Amino acid sequence: MSNPPQQPYPYPPQQPPQPPKKKRRKWPWVLLAIVVVIVIISVASGGGDKKDDTTTNASGTVASAAPEATGAAVAQPTTKADTAKGTVVYEVTADSGEANNITYFGENAQQSQANGVALPWRSKPFSKSKTTIKGVTAQNSGDGTISCKIIVDGKVQAENSSEGQYAVVSCNGKLF
Q1: Would residue 116 be called left, alpha or beta, if left means φ above 0 and alpha means ψ between -120 and 50 degrees?
Q2: 95 with 141: CB under 8 angstroms?
Q3: Full set of structural domains in the chain with CATH
């Protein structure tokens, strides 16, 4: 007895599966984009090395927000420039007589912070044409009410108050 002849297989032989295509790594490009954005922001903001941020305290003298190497504040007399045309001035007052911190925008959108500030506090006058972002935020060092003002050309542009222990108040002015 012989075996019947085999018939050809009706389906073609299957090819082995193709290996998956290599994915291109995206994380180096994302990292590069983040670094470029940080560099652009740093260049546009001027680097932030200015050390001429000064403020006026309750006694009417101008004191540096960044103490010099000796730790002493620089005191100068206050002028009428605080309310002159073309100026921006920030004010903070509180029942507690002290603020934990005051953060504000100066000329060329430079952000500054003063800590442990005696109140009432008044910033030096900034040029209105160079102060594109107007804003001040302060935190009370104790209980009570804390208030802020933005004064532009001698007129109050923004005013706000907050109440409570370690309350935070913020005033934001019109852009430009």
Answers
A1: left
A2: no
A3: 79-172 (2.60.40.2880)
Let me know how long the chain is: 176
| Triad 140, 146, 151: Cα angle to 5° | 120
Model pLDDT for residues 152-164, shown as the tens digit of each residue: 888 999 999 999 9
Query: Taking the model in full, what pTM does it have?
Result: 0.55
User: pLDDT for 121-157, tens place per residue?
Assistant: 999 998 888 888 899 999 999 899 999 999 988 899 9
Give me the residue label for tokens 């050309």.
153
Q: Sheet holding 98-105: strands in order across?
A: 111-118, 98-105, 135-140, 168-172
CA separation for the pair 151, 108 (Å, rounded): 17
How far apart, in Å, are the Cα atoms of 126 and each of 56, 84, 94, 132? 12, 10, 23, 11
**If 0-12 CB within 10 Å is exposed, 13-18 middle and 19+ buried, where does residue 30 land?**
exposed
> Among 52, 50, 48, which Cα is nearest to 65's?
52
Which residues are CB-neighbours of 84 under 8 A, at least 6 positions away? 125, 153, 154
> What is the DSSP-derived secondary structure letter of residue 38?
H
**Token pair for residue 154?**
């001698």
